[in-house]
BD-FAE-like domain-containing protein
Amino acid sequence: MSDRDALNAAIEKYGAFVGLPENDIMIDLATKIHKAENNDFSTSVKVVKALKYGPDERNRIDVYSPANATPSSKLPVALYFHGGGMVSGDNDINPVMYGNVGYYFASNSCVCILSTYRLLPTARHPDGANDVTSAMKWAIENCAAYGGDATRITVMGHSAGGSQLGTALWGGYLRDAGIQEKFACYVFLSAGLWYDVLNPPTSINMSNYHGTTDIEKIRREDPLSTFRRADKETMASWGKMWFFLSEFEFKEIVEGTVGCMEAYRKTMDKFLLMECIERENHVSYMYSLGTKGNRVGPRLLELVTESFK
């Protein structure tokens, strides 16, 4: 069985996975494909790691840019927040992930900024939303130094990263920071927008993150509930948003995205933009981003390279 066949088999087997062991298996399988393809970006992409956007150790950014980019290049920018259930994840969880995201966009004439944020056990709501807001402000103020155009930044949040992005946008953190309207598009990739507070591991992680065992309080503070409370004027102010789900997605993620769709349709009388990624699961399409046959990379590149102005 080839590495690609093994990954495809695991995608179907772990379509509804919720645990770290299954996640580690997906990482290992996708990493094998990256290594087998052996893409060499050493001369075409410049990488600057561990730039600080805040005081905490987790307030770190890595920037990937075309080697020939200059401050006058005005390239589109992809700003990416990783997943990990608010307990794990980083800008580089192994020598391949998530450098694959940075290399993919930078090798396609974009600047890519990878950002991490505070996690459990020390983080508490709304630390993640505050970190995302600070990182986005950093991107506006600093991307030009790496060849980026501050008026063409597309923000992407995968899984828990999408949860933090949703809270930052819909909870008013970006508005209060004066940066909400400065981004070309907000992209939610299998985002954690609704919390299954009755079942582990979410029930455990969210009780810790929100600092309470009060289920109703946690539900009020989740991104979907924040989204639903917005009026028409507020929803309109959020600008362009794009949602992605995988075909083999698990219920918690589907419930959050579909809930946002329903709330937006009821309030705005039109549909949010959403796509389903064929034959992928919750993590596979990001772990294999940049490999041959990856289904979401070209679509995300298309979104990033359009200005939506």
